[in-house]
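Last lecture ended with a question: if I hand you only a sequence, what can you say about the shape of the protein? Today we answer it with a concrete record. The protein is Calreticulin. Below, first the input exactly as provided, then the predicted structure, then a couple of comments.
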Amino acid sequence: MKWLIVAALVAAGRAEPVQYFKEQFEDGDEWQKRWIESKHKSDYGKFQLSAGKFYGDEEKDKGLQTSQDVRYYAISARFEPFSNEGQTLVIQFTVKHEQNIDCGGGYIKLFPSDLNQEDMHSDSTYYIMFGPDICGSGMKKVHVIFTYKEKNYLINKDIRCKDDEYTHLYTLILCPDNTYEIKIDNQKVESGSLEEDWDMLPPKKIKDPDAKQPDDWDEREQIDDPEDKKPEDWDDSEFIPDPESKKPDDWDDEMDGEWESAMIANSNYKGEWNAKMIDNPNFKGPWIHPELDNPEYIAEVNAYRFHNISVIGLDLWQVKSGTIFDNFLITNDEQFAEEFGNETWGLTMDGEKKMKEKQDEEENKKKEAEEKKTKAIDKVDKDEGKTTEEKNKEWKEEEQKQEDGKEKEHEEVAAEEKTNVEVDEEGTYEEAGEEGAESKLKDEL
Ligand SMILES: *[C@@H]1O[C@H](CO)[C@@H](O)[C@H](O)[C@H]1NC(C)=O
Ligand SMILES: *[C@@H]1O[C@H](CO)[C@@H](O)[C@H](O)[C@H]1NC(C)=O
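The predicted structure:
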């Protein structure tokens, strides 16, 4: 298979793929020399090396895992600076939210070479942001943000990300003809052009401000038939005076006001009369506003191009930690990236799923066994006069008390963090204050 690909590459006159950056965390603690934790804040969450609770291969599936709840994370790795001028740029990595994530980022950022890694934070200038972001049920999307002329632009299409507990492969392909493709698990989920799917450039065409719909432009496809007349005997009174109703003998017009007959439904009522519809002989079709070339539009052939790409970083906020990042690849070859995806994520995903299913099954069995036991004891206890239900209740109340204590502690931590984070209506989060990348981003747009 491999020689086939190489042969195809050679036949197509294509060069060997360039690997600008590759990270699989397969050399123990050595990653700590390649990845620099930012010191911009003193309380960034810690990353640890882990394959998680379930995996396809305990060694190969080891990646960077967020390990503390309700924290910001900021870590990055540097590589030789390169420009993607005239080249395809592929960014790929795997994300596993094995903690059943409630709110947190799962994306990467690509930075220029002048980034100070020790001071990397959510306001640091970046080129590209790509990957999944989840917050509540309202926000489950894949971000694709490009910086163009020092402003950040979000993709104007909605791409749903994976929200289960398994490892997923995310790929962004950016081409020198200003087109792109996004894949999840090596399947295309979106593609198009930079110009159409990001609002970096003003629109090519605008509506001619001098053009107006002529007054006599008839947009009605059908009209009432002028020949059609309401028949003489068409009865359109829904109610008529009741013939049985009589003015009482003692009715005093002066005292009681004018007498009115009671009304009853008209049995000859035919409903409202409507003329027959005919095709409008003057119908001209909908009026289309003429467009002009937008004088503000300037074609941009280099929207895709970035110079001195040199750092990949994880700059995140996570409520429930446990996300694992792995199998990072930055290359100029789409096919090579697909193959790399197949050989990493592709090889271990089935095993991972099996292990998880087995764990879930065992968990369920345990639960069932416990339930059975409880029922059995229940019977015995009843004889003793005190039901397990009562005992259970007492026990649960005690447990709840402890939980409440924990929750309160958690809330206090969260409240502190909340000065920096506000959840908006959609369930997306905005970071406020000087840390706010998202809010800053929105301001800029
Ligand atoms: C890339 O970085 C180098 C070294 O920092 C700098 O001299 C050069 O001007 C940069 N190139 C571009 C195109 O920004
Ligand atoms: C990756 O795996 C898929 C599914 O097995 C296969 O269809 C595809 O050809 C593979 N891609 C490469 C580049 O080997």
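Comments.
1. DSSP finds eight helices and 24 strands in the chain.
2. Helices lie at 2-11, 31-34, 194-197, 253-256, 334-343, 345-384, 388-418, 437-444.
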